[in-house]
Amino acid sequence: MVKACAEHQLAMVPQGGNTGLVGGGVPRMGRREVVVSLSRMNRVLDVDGANSTITVEAGCTLAAVQAAAHDVDRLFPLSLASEGTCQIGGNLACNAGGVQVLRYGNMRELTLGIEAVLPDGRVWNGLRGLRKDNTGYDLKQLFIGSEGTLGIITAAVLKLLPMPRSRAVAWVALASPVAAIALLGLMRARAAERLSAFEVIGEAAFDLVVQHMPGVFSPLAERAPWYALIELGDSDPAGGVKVLLEDILGSHLRSV
Ligand SMILES: Cc1cc2nc3c(=O)[nH]c(=O)nc-3n(C[C@H](O)[C@H](O)[C@H](O)COP(=O)(O)OP(=O)(O)OC[C@H]3O[C@@H](n4cnc5c(N)ncnc54)[C@H](O)[C@@H]3O)c2cc1C
Fold it and tell me: Would you say the pTM of this structure is higher than 0.85?
């Protein structure tokens, strides 16, 4: 298909779940552009428990990849609100981050290999699961974050991680973004790799959620200009993350 489009000088717009927020998967009005949907390339090709990797076609939804990882007691840690619809190809093309990016990184950090169709129709096969791969240029990184401009990603080898067995979550009222950064610094210093999420939310955005989402209410009696949703996680069920989180927040309260 790509060969035919190249022959006829037709522009192509790869499209995954079409949940991207900058319109990169949408053709422009009045232009001759072919939308290439990856939705039917949605097979999980391989799950390698020993190497902790999963190989999937680019049209797999993120939720399907998370579920396939879960089936072998592993975590695919990219998580975002559009995960039921967005696809791995789109996640790669956007270098998506999600709510656990602090701990696990963006798609750049979560990807070991990629297969892509180049603009002239040739297939570039970089589907490798080797972790210490120091051979030559790391060409997959060109496709990650390219928004579909360099080729169409058709498959990827992704890293799987151990499942968190214990979790603790806190909702914290804050005076300002500066206070949020100070608390993030303390969390990082004390909880290190156990800090899995730190999402800062302004009062106006939070009020909209409370107003419009049924069943959502503010857990705090008083209002604050800013809030942080913090999560610690540990692969050890007796990891003590709840005690640690309370201890860090307690020492922070005493210091302000
Ligand atoms: C409710 C919501 C919450 C979100 N939260 C986050 C978040 O927390 N963090 C975050 O980083 N992003 C977030 N996003 C944006 C997020 O990046 C996208 O949802 C997702 O990564 C895009 O995937 P998609 O399959 O929908 O891609 P699309 O929207 O279909 O496409 C996005 C771009 O990728 C290209 N593309 C798609 N598939 C391929 C392919 N196979 N090969 C080459 N190029 C391709 C398209 O041409 C386009 O440029 C959110 C979006 C929504 C709607």
Answer: yes
